[in-house]
Amino acid sequence: MSKVNISISDEILDEIDKIRKEKGITRSEFLRKAFKTYLEVLTEEKKEENKRKGIEKAIQLQDEIRKAIGKWDSTEDLRKWREARK
User: Which pTM does this prediction carry?
Assistant: First the structure.
């Protein structure tokens, strides 16, 4: 496992120490879990952003199709198809 040195304000370190003592874990374990959780959050945010972009693209495509087709009465078309089957 690699080791790194980081700078943390005294206020944040005090909060970390308070919580990690309550949990019975070391600073290293606390920070590993915090970093892992943050990476998971970033990954989820990226997935949500990609999903949002996909939805926006689909909406844009639907709008383009709707514009190209023009006015369309789906109920009228269904009636015609039903009548044609008789």
Answer: 0.67
Question: What digits encode the pLDDT tens for the residues 20-68?
Answer: 999 999 999 999 999 999 999 999 999 999 999 999 999 999 999 989 9
Tokens for 31, please give them.
Answer: 């920070």
User: Rounded to whole angstroms, how far apart are CA atoms 41 and 12?
Assistant: 20
**Which one-letter DSSP state was computed for residue 26?**
-
Taking CA 51 as the corner, what is the angle to CA 63 and CA 33, rounded to the nearest 5 degrees? 165
Mapped onto helix, strand or coil, the DSSP state of residue 25 is coil
Phi, psi of 40 (to 5 degrees): -65, -40
Is there a contact between 57 and 67 (Cβ–Cβ < 8 Å)? Answer: no
* C-alpha dihedral sign at 16, 35, 30, 20: positive
